[in-house]
C-alpha cells in the first residue's frame, strides 16, 4: 500500500522488498570500499549517525558546513559508482510517486546504530529543489518526524520499516524532518542497526 503524507510526498510501504537482497548486498560492497564515518557539523558537533556516499556526488559536512563533493575527503578519491540495483530502485520509486525522469547523481548512506538520531533539519544543499528526494529504510524500524516549513512547527510521527520508501517533492521538499533515537532490537537482515539511503539529484 502507499500513503500520501503531504501534497508532494508519498510513503511506498514495503516497495523495496523484492529488490532488498540485491540492494543490501550492494550497499555492503559500497561501505566496505568507502568507510562509514561520523561527520561533524559547522557548529562543531559530531553526528551520531555514520555516513558515506556513492554516486557522482557525495554529501559531506565539516566545520565549514554542508555541501556535495565529487571526492571522498577521507581518501581524496571519487565516491564509488552508484550500483545499478540502487539507481533502478530509486527511479522506479520516483516514478511510482509521480516524479518521472528522476536521475539521481548522489546516494547518501546513513547508518543508525541503536541510540542514533537525526535532529530536525531541512535539506537545502541541492541545486534544484524541483527534484524530489527518495529514501529507503532498511533494518531496525525508526520514527520519522515530519514537520513543517519552520523548525518550531509541530511534526507528525511516521513509522518507517524495512523496505519502506518515501518520496518527497514539490511543496513538501523543504519541510523540516528528522529521526528519533533508534530503539534496541535485532533485525533478521541488518542486525542491530538501521540503514537509510537517500537519493538526490544534487548537481
Ligand atoms: C523530507 N535522512 O539524510 S530520510 C538526510 O532517515 C535525512 O536518514 C533521514 O534526513 C534518515 O537528510 C530521513 C527522509 C527524508 C529525506 C529528505 C527529505 C525526508 C525528507 C527532504 C524533505 C522532506
Ligand atoms: Fe534530511
From TrEMBL:
<dbReference type="GO" id="GO:0035516">
    <property type="term" value="F:broad specificity oxidative DNA demethylase activity"/>
</dbReference>
<dbReference type="GO" id="GO:0035513">
    <property type="term" value="P:oxidative RNA demethylation"/>
</dbReference>
<feature type="binding site">
    <location>
        <position position="121"/>
    </location>
    <ligand>
        <name>Fe cation</name>
    </ligand>
</feature>
<dbReference type="GO" id="GO:0008198">
    <property type="term" value="F:ferrous iron binding"/>
</dbReference>
<keyword id="KW-0223">Dioxygenase</keyword>
<keyword id="KW-0560">Oxidoreductase</keyword>
<dbReference type="InterPro" id="IPR027450">
    <property type="entry name" value="AlkB-like"/>
</dbReference>
<dbReference type="InterPro" id="IPR004574">
    <property type="entry name" value="Alkb"/>
</dbReference>
<protein>
    <submittedName>
        <fullName>DNA-N1-methyladenine dioxygenase</fullName>
    </submittedName>
</protein>
<dbReference type="GO" id="GO:0005737">
    <property type="term" value="C:cytoplasm"/>
</dbReference>
<feature type="domain" description="Fe2OG dioxygenase">
    <location>
        <begin position="103"/>
        <end position="203"/>
    </location>
</feature>
<feature type="binding site">
    <location>
        <position position="123"/>
    </location>
    <ligand>
        <name>Fe cation</name>
    </ligand>
</feature>
<feature type="binding site">
    <location>
        <position position="177"/>
    </location>
    <ligand>
        <name>Fe cation</name>
    </ligand>
</feature>
<dbReference type="InterPro" id="IPR037151">
    <property type="entry name" value="AlkB-like_sf"/>
</dbReference>
<dbReference type="Pfam" id="PF13532">
    <property type="entry name" value="2OG-FeII_Oxy_2"/>
</dbReference>
<dbReference type="InterPro" id="IPR005123">
    <property type="entry name" value="Oxoglu/Fe-dep_dioxygenase_dom"/>
</dbReference>
<dbReference type="GO" id="GO:0035515">
    <property type="term" value="F:oxidative RNA demethylase activity"/>
</dbReference>
<keyword id="KW-0408">Iron</keyword>
<keyword id="KW-0479">Metal-binding</keyword>
Amino acid at each position: 500500500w502507499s500513503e500520501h503524507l503531504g501534497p508532494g510526498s508519498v510513503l511506498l510501504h514495503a516497495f523495496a522488498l523484492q529488490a532488498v537482497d540485491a540492494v543490501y548486498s550492494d550497499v555492503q560492497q559500497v561501505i566496505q570500499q568507502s568507510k562509514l564515518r561520523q561527520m561533524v557539523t559547522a557548529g562543531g558537533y559530531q553526528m551520531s549517525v555514520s555516513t558515506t556516499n556513492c554516486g557522482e556526488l557525495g554529501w559531506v559536512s565539516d566545520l565549514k558546513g554542508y555541501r556535495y563533493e565529487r571526492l571522498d575527503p577521507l581518501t581524496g578519491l571519487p565516491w564509488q559508482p552508484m550500483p545499478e540495483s540502487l539507481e533502478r530502485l530509486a527511479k522506479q520509486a520516483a516514478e511510482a510517486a509521480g516524479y518521472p525522469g528522476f536521475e539521481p547523481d548522489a546516494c547518501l548512506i546513513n547508518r543508525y546504530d541503536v541510540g542514533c538520531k537525526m535532529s530536525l533539519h531541512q535539506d537545502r544543499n541541492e541545486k534544484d529543489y524541483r527534484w524530489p528526494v527518495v529514501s529507503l529504510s532498511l533494518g531496525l524500524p525508526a520514527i520519522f518526524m515530519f514537520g513543517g516549513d519552520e523548525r518550531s512547527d509541530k511534526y507528525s510521527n511516521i513509522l518507517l520499516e524495512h523496505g519502506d520508501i518515501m518520496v518527497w517533492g514539490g511543496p513538501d521538499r523543504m519541510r523540516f524532518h528528522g529521526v528519533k533515537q533508534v530503539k534496541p532490537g535485532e533485525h533478521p537482515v541488518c542486525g542491530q542497526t538501521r540503514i537509510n539511503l537517500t537519493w538526490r539529484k544534487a548537481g
